[in-house]
Amino acid sequence: AQYSDELDETDPCNRIITRTWTLSDNCGNAADPQIQIITIKDNIPPTFTRPPDITIYRDASCGYDASVTFTGDVTDEEDNCGVDEATFADVVNADDPCEVIITRTWSLEDDCGNKAADQVQTITVEDNTPPTFTRPPDITIYRDENCEYDADVFYTGDVEDEADNCGVGEATFVDAVNDSDPCEVIITRTWSLVDDCLNAAADQVQTITVEDNTPPTFTRPADITIYRDEN
After folding, report:
1. Closest C-alpha to 106, from 174, 49, 179
2. Separation of CA 211 from chain center
3. pLDDT tens-digit profile of 73-90?
4. What's the confidence (pLDDT) of residue 188?
5. Number of continuous H segments (helices) and E segments (strands) in the chain
6. Is the pTM of this model over 0.90?
7. What percentage of the chain exceeds 90 in pLDDT?
8. In 23-161, which ranges are E strands?
9. If you average pLDDT over every residue of the chain, what do you get?
């Protein structure tokens, strides 16, 4: 038997070979031709490598950019017959704004519909920007008429410029009092500030000096006339 082939490459994913078989005996008698259809398919899936897991950070406006420019792209798509670029779909878990989790599922399909196994990249978004503030200036306060003093922030100054990219409360302080010299008490006030994501600003120290500037009072004895004695 002999054959001849006719190749149809209209669909590169399903090439069709029409193979016509013929047979003649030694006396020239020919059998009816018989046709065999051979279909050539591509069943090999493409390959690729997902970008590695990564942590990115919020910017000065508390936003973030999770585009592939910053989180990594697939660059090694390969296939035996032809493939485009890998694509992805994101699922964002923002329950904790201080640690947003983006589950990025990468997919790749070749030109013949063969699919690679999906690959998952985890992108973590965090806030690592500490807050800012300005401590009140150093100050001297004075004892009152009862020798008392009031070092409340109403008199010594408060922090009013707390700022952060994502959210912050109020600055707090802790005092260390050195009153070994009652005429000049030194209060070392250490101010602290932590944002909503527990990023801490550098502590700042305010010095409050307590002095007594009230002069004492007294009454002199009255003018008087005294007299010599017999001697």
Report:
1. 49
2. 48
3. 999 999 999 999 999 999
4. 98
5. 2, 11
6. no
7. 98
8. 34-41, 54-57, 87-93, 99-107, 119-126, 139-142
9. 97
* Beta-sheet pairing, 2-8 with 54-57: unpaired
**Of residues 174, 190, 183, 227, the one with CA closest to residue 209:** 183
Among 124, 206, 197, 205, CA closest to 164? 197
Q: Are strands 34-41 and 2-8 parallel, antiparallel or unpaired?
A: unpaired
Name the residue type at position 155.
Y
Contact (Cβ atoms closer than 8 angstroms) between residue 191 and residue 160: no
Cβ pair 115, 107 in contact under 8 A: yes
Output DSSP code: residue 115: B
Beta bridge partners of 88: 106
Size (the chain), residues: 231
The torsion angle over the Cα atoms of residues 62, 65, 66 and 70, rounded to 10 degrees, is: -120
Q: Are strands 139-142 and 204-211 parallel, antiparallel or unpaired?
A: parallel
Task: Tell me the Ramachandran region of residue 182: left when phi exceeds 0, alpha when psi lies from -120 to 50, beta otherwise.
Answer: alpha
Model confidence pLDDT, tens digit, residues 156-194: 999 999 999 999 999 999 999 999 999 999 999 999 999
